[in-house]
Amino acid sequence: MSIPTERPLRADARRNRERVLEGARAVFAEHGRDAQMDDVARKAGVGVGTVYRHFPTKEALVSALAVSLFEQVLASARRALEIDDPWEAFTTALWAGVEVLASDRAFTEIIGQAEMPFDTDLMAEMNDAYMQLVQRAKDSGDLRPDIVLDDIPMFTCGIGMATVKPHMCQAAWRRHLAIIIDGLRATNASGPLPS
Amino acid sequence: MSIPTERPLRADARRNRERVLEGARAVFAEHGRDAQMDDVARKAGVGVGTVYRHFPTKEALVSALAVSLFEQVLASARRALEIDDPWEAFTTALWAGVEVLASDRAFTEIIGQAEMPFDTDLMAEMNDAYMQLVQRAKDSGDLRPDIVLDDIPMFTCGIGMATVKPHMCQAAWRRHLAIIIDGLRATNASGPLPS
DNA sequence: GAGGAAATGGAGGTGGAGTTCCGGTTTCGC
DNA sequence: GCGAAACCGGAACTCCACCTCCATTTCCTC
Questions:
Q1: Where are the alpha helices (DSSP H) in A103-171?
Q2: How many CB atoms lie within 10 A of CB A41?
Q3: B182 near A188, Cβ under 8 Å?
Q4: What is the 3-state secondary structure (H, E, C) of chain B?
Q5: Which of A43, A76, A97, B171 is deepest in the core (most CB within 10 A)?
Q6: Are the beta carbons of A133 and A175 closer than 8 angstroms?
Q7: Per-10-residue mean pLDDT for chain B, 195 residues long?
Q8: CA A179 – CA A98 distance, rounded (Å)
């Protein structure tokens, strides 16, 4: 019953897999989810068949990319957790996380969906990290106490979605986030949040 | 060179046109832009051919709906302009406008695009109304002065996009907007907005 | 280097969504 | 009422994007 360890990829296969990922990242970041597989292949300098050999489905390819970006966001959250000041830690994580979102159209579209195509462990670790950031910022009295964890992806996703509008200045997301961060401060709350 | 006044629609055509619009509103509000024309027809209790007789293209149908919702938002902004207190006028307009957005997935997707398929007059009137709301709220010292007009659709669009996630509580947009409004108050600004 | 397994590429199959077309039906002016 | 014109319905067509297939090439093992 031992799981047969997968034989290592051949050299050319490994190289091409990397090229596909690279091309896909570029194409999906620019055109969002509905970029086309043929364009990915062309960008990667590879045939469509090769793309499909490495990723059986468009969805699988998109997921692979999303996982990678998700890990980036998680890493930035963990780095922020090392900051002593709770409010600075919290806002630092937001700035870093949103920067990833704002740079990639497809990623924002994906996390804006109901079902994430990820392994749940990653999600759980993500929740953990952000839960700590939120709780610490609440405990210190900096973050308004009626914020819940689910509010955070709502904000960040909103910023991402609003920023990918093609005609929009690329730096606009910074203004957007700055406003939200000011709105999140406990001292700035004009009243309790609804429901 | 007189433009031939269009003959009035026949009774059944007028009735069906209305049914198509009604069905389309429902279907697009729920499924967003990529709802299907066949579904619109079915919802309207009408053949696809009839849909295409009244709206030559899917895009045309979507635009017609969007104009109607846009007019709703404009009307709510004008109503808000009659409120004396500048800050209350401004926030009232936001609450009303976002409520329309949050209820309609396709509409949010459309205004999140580069080119709006509208007649420009409507856009200009919209700009006028919001410009006044923004300026008055700045002049009274309530709204932070470094906000520009273009920031407003960015915020509202972000809220709309973040809210149409199917799994999300329908009232979440209120929390989102409440945070942003608190962030927009001049007294709550922690620093100047970037660029 | 030879044999064979793995990987490649891109022409074409497949399916689904937008649009067209036209025989049949409904409405309106006379 | 009657004829003509407008309108309706939905089967069929088109087009485009995802995906498959296999002859050919590349790489690894012995």
A1: 105-111, 120-139, 151-163
A2: 21
A3: yes
A4: CCCCCCCCCCHHHHHHHHHHHHHHHHHHHHHCCCCCHHHHHHHHCCCHHHHHHHCCCHHHHHHHHHHHHHHHHHHHHHHHHCCCCHHHHHHHHHHHHHHHHHCCHHHHHHHCCCCCCCCHHHHHHHHHHHHHHHHHHHHCCCECCCCCCCHHHHHHHHHHHHHCCCCCCCCHHHHHHHHHHHHHEHHHCCCCCCC
A5: A97
A6: no
A7: 64 97 96 95 98 97 94 97 98 97 88 72 94 98 97 94 76 95 98 93
A8: 13
Do both A139 and A92 map to the same domain? Answer: yes
Nearest partner of B131 among B84, B78, B192, B183, judged by Cα:
B78
Beta bridge partners of B143: B185
Q: In this structure, is residue B176 part of a structural domain?
A: yes
Q: What is the mean pLDDT of chain A?
A: 92
The structural domain count of chain A equals: 2
pLDDT at residue B26, rounded to an integer: 97
Interface residue of B174, B179, B187, B190 to substitute, partner A, most A CBs within 10 Å: B179
CB contact under 8 A, B190 and A172: no
- Which bases on strand C have an atom closer than 7 Å to a protein beta carbon? 6-12, 17-22, 26-28
Which nucleotide is nearest to A14 if distance is taken from CA to C1'? C7
Q: Could you give the CA distance from residue A7 to residue A97 in angstroms, rounded to a whole number?
A: 36
Does the distance separating the beta carbons of B180 and A162 come in below 8 Å? no
Strand C close to B117 by CB, under 7 A: no
Assign residue B129 the CATH number of its domain. 1.10.357.10
Q: The complex's ipTM? A: 0.91
